[in-house]
Amino acid sequence: MKPFKILLAGLLYLLTFSPVSAQLQFEFEVRPRTEYRHGFKTLASPDQDPAFFTDQRTRFNGLFSDDNITVKISLQDVRVWGNQSQLVVGDGNLTSLHEGWAKFNISPKFAFKVGRQEIAYDDQRILGSVGWAQQARSHDAAILMFQDSTFSGHLGLAFNQNSPRLFSTDYTVKNYKALQYLWLHKDWKQANLSVLVLNNGVQVLNDNGEAVGTNFSHTLGGRFGFKLGKFQINSSAYYQGGKQANVQGTRINALYTGADLTYGVGRGHSFTLGGEILSGNNQMNPTGENNAFTPLYGTNHKFNGLMDYFYVGNHVNNVGLNDLFVKWGMKKSKFNSGIQLHFFTANEAIADEAGKEMSSYLGTEVDITTSFPVTKGVGVAAGYSHMFGSDSMVTLKNAGSTDATSNWVWMMVTIKPSFKIATK
């Protein structure tokens, strides 16, 4: 508990001796989630036993703000119930600093934010907080920000190292070594437009684990949204180029497009029809370059079905994906429910073991979710998902069977009380 005491004492000191109006906010979160998995991420086999477990995120957030400075510190512990003995000596590095940043207002429109922080923009397709994952995602970065009534601009920079060095900048952690991006966003009365330019540098290691250089990929694109009456239209497009993160430095030439149309029926009901295309590599006729689009650091659990078959630590540099989906949602008195139906096909050709081309159809997924508040600061969410996979999915994943039932059930409780202290 010593880190929590130090944090509390420091924040109280800032609040007590601040000469201007200031506010201190504390937020606590306990979020256990129980899951039944039988075909999650990949198709199940007939003789495969299901997985059943509970993992939990415990967080303590402290936020200090005055007229010019905002400081946030977020400590979290992520563990699976029972992964340590009852008489454990240490936490096994399960407790970490999720966020630790400061933001300084240079002027009424410019600000500078530095430290460990979540970075999320637009629909979180390329850069997201990955809030579904208990550990979530944060970056060590510096961001110069501009904000007025209708326009925002962020310039972000990051350079990662294993530890303080006397010479060289070799980096061996499984992460990017350098990141630079520019995000621009403009709002109009019924429309909005975002543009993202991202430069992603990954350290290249040889077979001996030695650094031999840094390869950079480039992502350029944007997202457009337009609202007309009960209709909401969104569309996105991105291009990726540069070099793949390997010794050969294979060239990247990949595309992403996506669009969706939502219609608000009334009484809290809505229907959405949409699709995504992520380019891939052709297994029948390779081009010699990497044509597979990678959504990099996005909240990928949010897309392409909730069972995480695609782009959640998997399906990278593969045959790509076409995802046609329809969604129904209902929000009423804080009670939310939804049903999603995804129809998946490969964007490029799949070859079987004999080298013959297979059907592009991968499978159909159904996701059912619901959430509701129990009382102030306490909420419950649950879901059921079912994947109807094809033989092409079995070949692509090199696992599972179409004869087994592939489903996933989960329930999550979020307890999140907070309070504020203000002074002048």
TrEMBL record:
The keyword Signal applies. Pfam families: Alginate_exp. Residues 1-22 form the signal peptide. Residues 23-391 form the Alginate export domain. It comes from the Bacteria. Keywords: Signal. This is Alginate export domain-containing protein. It comes from Flavilitoribacter nigricans (strain ATCC 23147 / DSM 23189 / NBRC 102662 / NCIMB 1420 / SS-2) (Lewinella nigricans).
